[in-house]
# Entry
Amino acid sequence: MLKFFDRIFLSVPLTIFLILSLGLISLLGVTPSLKSIFSSPWFLAYLCGIVVMMLYCSVRRWPWLIKHYCYNRHIFSGPKPNSSYFSADGKDIFNLRFDTASARPAPVQLDRIFSKRGYRKTASREGESGEKKFFYEKAKLNIFGAHVVHLAVAVLLLAGIVTAWGGKFYDFTIREGETVRLEGTDASLTLEKFVILPSAEKEKADEYASRLRINRPGKPIEWQTVKVNRPLRIDGVRLFQIRFNLNIEKLRLGISRGKDNQPLKSLSLGLDQRVEVPELNIAVELKNFMPDFSLDKNNQVTSRSHMLKNPAAYLLLYSPAASTAPAEQVWIFRGMIMPHGKSAEPEDKQLHFMLDDIKVYYTSGIKYARNPGEYLTYAGLIILVAGSFLSTSQFYRGLLVTVKEDAAGAVAAVSARAMKCKNVFTLEKEITIMVNEMKQGANRA
Amino acid sequence: MMTGVIALYFLSLVFFLADGKFRKKFLAFAENGALFAGWALHAYLLVTRALQAHRFPLTDTYETLILFAWLLAVISFFAASRLEFRWIKLLGIGVALCLLIFSLFINDEIHPLMPALRSGWLYFHVGAYIIAYASFAIAFGLSLVFIGIFIFSRGAHKAALDDLEGMTFRMIDVGFPFLTVGLACGSIWASISWGRFWNWDAKEVWALTTWLIYAGCLHLRHTRNLRGINATVLAAAGFIVILFTYIGVNLFFSTLHSYS
# Structure
């Protein structure tokens, strides 16, 4: 039975197929029209399949890893060192002879050199005829690194599945003074005030925040503020300040005449709405409202902020009223009279335009997020980071060292076999350095 | 000031090549002198930018490019001495020079920092990615040298090729944990700022693809004994995907990361 599961869940071709197809689906899903595939049931089933495979692979591997981790306890108990942990060729990585007559004993020297490079002696055995065996290891936790990464990926995918199944995410807008019920809780929210917090530094854009009143039956009223990057948690639901809209409630256009600005008409109109004024035989239309009009360095019109500091609107003036093309297009401002410059009328009869009454309100754009997989995701990410450092920062090294001294202790033959190492390149470099140190020690003697 | 940095790095490269040819002590001294002076000036440029912007320079393409170039110069120096292969410096500083010259054509204006970017996670997320990218850039350079030697010598010079391959993967080993930290921090930050750990945004998907390529590369090497030309070609492909993630995604897709 176990063999059957092993054949399916430990199959390398199947794993490669699943990972490649997951990559392909992810790349296709970036296209907006195909984005829905990520929430489709078959995609979740597909993720479930990968999770099961990864968890199975991980669970099956851990007993072997623990045995490997504890190998130093049994290394000398069998007739031969376990061949699966050592390279297949069975060759020694070095085999040296030292004259140690006037120096410290070879095992002491070796211990000093190995310890300096971070190795720990984890097993030793004294054999017959002066032969001593030592087992040195370092970076032992590295054995688990890749498997911790495996486990982390499985946990993260599992968190993704939990999120897709039980999570809910959507954006909603709320107007100042409006009350909404918070889905999945008994709380109701009222947006008491939406504020834009001007930045004191020109290098930073203005911040914005929603002041919310939270009302729960039988509980005291709470006031909380939600800002960008400062989400608010209410009964397991998180609220995020995402965006806001500036809405025009009222916009009035004042029309006056002559040098003394004799008021003629005050029109209430919306943006992009053409209004005729029959008595003056004109039609007007306002476009592009700017709350804080300014010109950038390329002379392009822009709004410096979202606050009503220097409101302006783009006026299209049709004269006569029935004409299709505007006779004049001009930016008009609050409290500033703009003459109808292209009028054929004499100056004292010319029309003047001005924005004279503007009322705006803000709607706050808030994201609702209920994510049952949140803590699982945090756990998965922490395990992932730990696993990636464990698996690549240092590589496990195990050296089985044999020292044979002659009866007088004057000559020692030292040989070593290395356990399988994932980074042969640095192991070889390290061995070269250690062999040189051993030779220097012997020469000094 | 940027011209000064470019000139000093260039000078360091000239002394490096001269030292390779004539093997004179003063040339090595001049090479390191020019390199340290270039670093110092480059660091001063970064600090000045940070003081002007009232934040670490990590928020737009220009800032990440000049930080990337600085880190490349630093990492290549340490990698060259640690791996005992001085040509890594040539690769690192050469690529840093290209990035700095490219940055001269990019808008270097300081833009107001939007509220979503005002988070401590920005520094961990972008910082970790840039360290990873710098390591992978050196690995990419080494893999290109490997591929070049392999093609032109038809697989001869085995010892040199083995060393190059070992160094390529050592640099990938250095960069990979930082790539993971960048991905994890980005995910946590997205959760805090946008309400979801993962939004299937184009940049995110390509960043994940990059991670999968390097993870697959290391996995195959450690468990399936992937070696030689196949291993280095895969490592080189990983960096090409990084370049697309870093620059290409913003050109071809509409993304939540449009500011980067």
About this structure: The first strand of chain A starts at residue 94 and ends at 99. Chain A has a mean pLDDT of 82. The first helix of chain A runs from residue 2 to 9. The two ends of chain A are 62 Å apart (CA to CA).
